[in-house]
Protein backbone atom coordinates (compact mmCIF):
# COMPACT_ATOMS: atom_id res chain seq x y z
CA UNK A 1 0.00 0.00 0.00
CA UNK A 2 1.38 3.41 -0.95
CA UNK A 3 1.75 6.32 1.45
CA UNK A 4 -0.95 8.13 -0.49
CA UNK A 5 -3.36 5.24 0.01
CA UNK A 6 -2.46 5.04 3.70
CA UNK A 7 -3.08 8.77 4.05
CA UNK A 8 -6.46 8.42 2.37
CA UNK A 9 -7.45 5.71 4.84
CA UNK A 10 -6.31 7.85 7.78
CA UNK A 11 -8.34 10.80 6.51
CA UNK A 12 -11.40 8.59 6.01
CA UNK A 13 -11.00 7.29 9.55
CA UNK A 14 -10.71 10.85 10.87
CA UNK A 15 -13.74 11.94 8.85
CA UNK A 16 -15.78 9.08 10.29
CA UNK A 17 -15.35 10.69 13.70
CA UNK A 18 -16.59 14.15 12.71
CA UNK A 19 -19.95 14.71 14.38
CA UNK A 20 -20.37 18.47 14.35
CA UNK A 21 -19.49 21.64 12.50
CA UNK A 22 -16.89 22.35 15.20
CA UNK A 23 -15.24 18.97 14.56
CA UNK A 24 -15.21 19.61 10.82
CA UNK A 25 -13.75 23.07 11.31
CA UNK A 26 -11.04 21.70 13.60
CA UNK A 27 -10.15 18.93 11.11
CA UNK A 28 -9.98 21.39 8.22
CA UNK A 29 -7.75 23.68 10.28
CA UNK A 30 -5.41 20.82 11.20
CA UNK A 31 -5.09 19.79 7.55
CA UNK A 32 -4.56 23.41 6.48
CA UNK A 33 -1.85 23.92 9.09
CA UNK A 34 -0.13 20.69 8.01
CA UNK A 35 0.11 21.86 4.39
CA UNK A 36 1.00 25.43 5.35
CA UNK A 37 3.93 24.13 7.39
CA UNK A 38 5.09 21.93 4.49
CA UNK A 39 4.88 24.91 2.13
CA UNK A 40 6.80 27.16 4.54
CA UNK A 41 9.57 24.56 4.91
CA UNK A 42 9.85 24.26 1.11
CA UNK A 43 10.03 28.04 0.71
CA UNK A 44 12.63 28.29 3.49
CA UNK A 45 14.73 25.63 1.77
CA UNK A 46 14.48 27.44 -1.58
CA UNK A 47 15.48 30.69 0.15
CA UNK A 48 18.48 29.01 1.79
CA UNK A 49 19.79 27.59 -1.51
CA UNK A 50 19.16 30.88 -3.35
CA UNK A 51 16.47 29.75 -5.79
CA UNK A 52 13.98 32.09 -4.11
CA UNK A 53 14.88 35.59 -2.98
CA UNK A 54 13.43 39.03 -2.32
CA UNK A 55 13.46 39.92 -6.02
CA UNK A 56 11.42 36.81 -6.91
CA UNK A 57 9.05 37.49 -4.03
CA UNK A 58 8.53 41.06 -5.26
CA UNK A 59 7.89 39.75 -8.78
CA UNK A 60 5.27 37.28 -7.57
CA UNK A 61 3.57 39.78 -5.28
CA UNK A 62 1.89 41.60 -8.17
CA UNK A 63 0.83 38.55 -10.17
CA UNK A 64 -2.63 37.06 -10.39
CA UNK A 65 -1.99 33.30 -10.36
CA UNK A 66 -5.48 31.91 -9.88
CA UNK A 67 -6.96 29.57 -12.44
CA UNK A 68 -9.55 31.40 -14.53
CA UNK A 69 -12.97 29.79 -14.50
CA UNK A 70 -15.39 30.46 -17.31
CA UNK A 71 -19.12 29.96 -17.28
CA UNK A 72 -20.30 27.29 -19.66
Short overview:
By secondary structure, this protein is an all-alpha fold. It is built from 3 helices and no strands.
Secondary-structure topology with pairs:
Layout: H1 3-15, H2 21-49, H3 54-61
How many alpha or pi helices? 3
Q: What is the rounded Rg?
A: 18 Å
Largest sheet: none
Our measurement of the CA-to-CA distance between the termini, rounded to an integer number of angstroms, reads 39 Å
Q: What are the segments in which pLDDT stays under 50 over at least 5 consecutive residues?
A: none
Return the string of H and E elements. HHH
Q: Would you tell me the structural class of the helices and strands?
A: mainly alpha
Q: Give the helix proportion (percent range).
A: 55-70%
Outline, from the CA principal axes? extended
The averaged pLDDT comes out at 92
Quote the beta fraction. under 5%
Number of distinct beta strands: 0
Distinctive features:
72 residues, mainly alpha, single chain
Q: How would you describe what is shown here?
A:
This protein is mainly α and 72 residues long. It has 3 helices and no strands. It has helices at residues 3-15, 21-49, 54-61. The longest helix has 29 residues, at 21-49. The chain is extended and about 45 Å long. The chain starts with a helix and ends in an 11-residue tail after the last helix. The mean pLDDT is 92.
